[in-house]
Amino acid sequence: MHKVFTLLLLVVLATTPFVGRACSCVDVSIRKGYKQSDIIFAGTLIGKAQAERLTRYTFRVNHLYKGTLRADTVSVFSSGRGEDCGSNFALNSSYLIYSWFRDAKPKSIFDSGPKVSPYLYTSLCSRNKPDRFANLYEKAVLTFL
After folding, report:
1. Residue pLDDT, tens place only, 12-38
2. Strand pairing of 94-106 and 73-78?
3. Alpha-carbon gap, residue 81 to 87, rounded angstroms
4. How far apart are CA 108 and CA 87, in angstroms?
5. Considering the entire predicted model, what is its pTM?
6. CA-based nearest residue to 129, from 92, 97, 83, 91
7. The dihedral formed by the CA atoms of 132, 44, 75 and 111, expressed in degrees to the nearest 10
8. pLDDT, tens digit (0-9, with 9 covering 90-100), for 80-124
9. Where do the domains of the chain lie, and which CATH numbers do they carry?
10. 137, 119, 117: which is closest to 127 by C-alpha?
11. Is 17 helix (H, G, I), strand (E, B) or coil?
């Protein structure tokens, strides 16, 4: 009976599809996320468009925690695909976004292309989250850093 159970278990494990991810993230503290980011804000996604290998997300900024912006809207780019560490945001939803400036056109996740005008970028491994999941502690720390 034990051999039959073991054999059955092996067959089930061998035939069960597993979803793999090419991107895995390490938890980053609020302080480290703050240091690694150029612009941190809470905002509502009002636009989404493909731009070559990237997705351009346009946010209406509700609260700025770090950095300086010239307008009340900002565009942040990401690969838009989770398997290569990109972010995927839903229209009309509010998020807490950690972003930084890049000045190279992406060729792949591991390689960058020629220099371009700086643009804001974020990834799956940033501390981004729906604004409703950003607790008061995180927002207070960001306010006072």
Report:
1. 444 544 444 456 677 889 999 999 999
2. unpaired
3. 6
4. 15
5. 0.75
6. 97
7. 30
8. 655 556 677 899 999 999 999 987 766 554 455 666 778 899 988
9. 25-144 (2.40.50.120)
10. 137
11. coil
